[in-house]
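anyone seen this seq b4? input:
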Amino acid sequence: MKQVVQSKAPIIAAWISLISNIVLTILKIVVGTIFHSPVLLADGYHNAGDVVASGAALTSMRISQRPADDDHPYGHGKAEVISSAIVAIILGVAAIYIAYESVSAFFQAPEKASIIAFGTAIISLVWKQVLYVYTIRIGKRTNSKGLIATAYDHLADVYASLAAVVGIGLALVGDFYHIQILSYGDPIAGIIVTVLVFKLAYEIGKEAMDTLMEKSVSQQRLDEFTTLILAVPEVKRIDRLRAREHGHYVLVDIRVAVEGELTIQEGHDIIRDIKDNIMRQHHDVDEVLIHLNPWYADMEKR
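predicted toks r here
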């Protein structure tokens, strides 16, 4: 079984994400606690969940790159999908916590906004945006489900940090011009973040479940496989074509009809040509299983 070659880039990106989340968690919780910023504090606890998510992603990526063995003949690719599901759960819990903290803030006297909390939110926004762009590029290039989930986790933090910047900024304006309603900009921003984070949690969770339930790849990819199979002249008919994602690689199952009088060697050569066509054009395909059915001209005339 061919293993899709994985570079060290996803592992390095996962380590950078983990270390960044640890630093940002400490920074946000300390500043949010000292200056009583609900949205910044909630974002800090969200980041604490990100530390767990980043650790899970890093572990899963290491496991997924192990070669196939007797117990796991199709490899360990789904380990990354499991970490994606963990990230989705953590994001969902974080959204609930942010919503609770934001709603609670409406029933309390608004805290005086802090320029330091505002600056912390800006640092987090820029830092997380850079991390998102960095991890999503590597994740998509290597088809790493765990790293892509981590990237979307960073995107959720971008939303949270942007809301914190806007919310704290409005509160600062409200304090300066004595506009009471703007003092609640912080918790209002937290509620907006809740919706965005829930949406990301749903999308990541759905994709993870689809892969774990072995949902077929897109019809577009199946059509591409069909074209490559029929490019082999000896193939008379495609009887069945299935393909599914197995983490960062794809497994393909094919049944094709060829002339029944061909020798075993000729059948073997046809199988090799089909595999070469598909794997040469689709580098994320790890294995192609092909079954040959006999084809006779008089059968087609009936």
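The two ends are 40 Å apart (CA to CA). Residues 9-212 form a domain with the Alpha-lytic protease prodomain-like fold (CATH 1.20.1510.10). kinda curious what u guys think
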